[in-house]
User: What shape does this take?
Amino acid sequence: MSLKTGFLGFAAAAAMASAVASPVNAQQIDLKFHTMVPPVANPIKTMWQPWADKVNAEAKGKMKITIYPAMQLGGTARDVVSQVKDSVVDMGWTLPGYTPGRFPVSEVFELPFVHTNAVATTLALQDFQAKYLKDEFKDYQVILLHSHAGSLIMSRKPITKFDDMKGLKIRTATRTMSWYLDSIGAVPIDQPVPEVVQMISKGTVDALALPYEIAPAYKTQELVQYFTTLEGNQPRLNTSVFSMLMSKASYAKLPTDMKRLIDANSGKNIAEKAGKNWEDIEAPSKAIMASVKDNKFPVIPAAEAAKFKAAGKVAKDRWVGEMNKMGLKGAEMLKEAEALVLKYTK
Assistant: This one.
């Protein structure tokens, strides 16, 4: 499936549906969708705006979703989950990891080297959610949990071996990645993505853990010169879990047909397209990074990559311990998450 037949294809479907939609009436339900990234960011352009357009077209004037990017309704990226829970906004797209420890079970997919690709991890999340995440997200109507294509190391100085990570100040989005970086002698700095430009520009960090897709929105191709991956079948350090959440109160107020419409555009119904979308937007974003003459794309050789992967055990053991303290079977859950990702990996 290409982007044309994936989420961007929603735009064409929405346009066709709009042509036969009934006029908007006074009873139209207006839903506010809040998020932290700017409107030029790939996640808005290639997924969530087409998704909203599709839902709006299928609602035929009964309901309209309006996206407010770049935190236009106030607050910071860390506030989105609370804004949705408290019905300050109707919907929000954000990272649970921006509120460390609030969604600890879902962090299993953010552990180093559990992730393989966005399709596999997103599909695995659907199965795992049904079994293990109902309580964690009980305060929300979950539209989708998904992942991006995975974080590589974007830095101002070359990283050619495992020991080069020691002492580096590295921006990350998740506490599990912070555990990993700390365990290998790096200095993790946990900050939402809107802060990356200021952080790298001011030298607050030496490197960024990011995927290619979000980088053009923050012009990291002009801020760092090295984009480093690992040799082997898991070339990136980890991924982030993303959540598209709806206020339970807002969902409850919807008429039955609009609830069904939201449900039809949620969860397993959109998971594979979402994962494919995140994979597809990596290549054009990498091309933007490569368009800057001096930028380089080193691949750490297998022997050194093995050291990165072996070091992941510390963070995994720590997560298992956290789960055990909660009365959950941490080792069993980690094993199942890894097995699910491998099941869907192609």
User: Anything to note?
Assistant: The domain at 3-149+240-280 is CATH 3.40.190.170 (D-Maltodextrin-Binding Protein; domain 2).
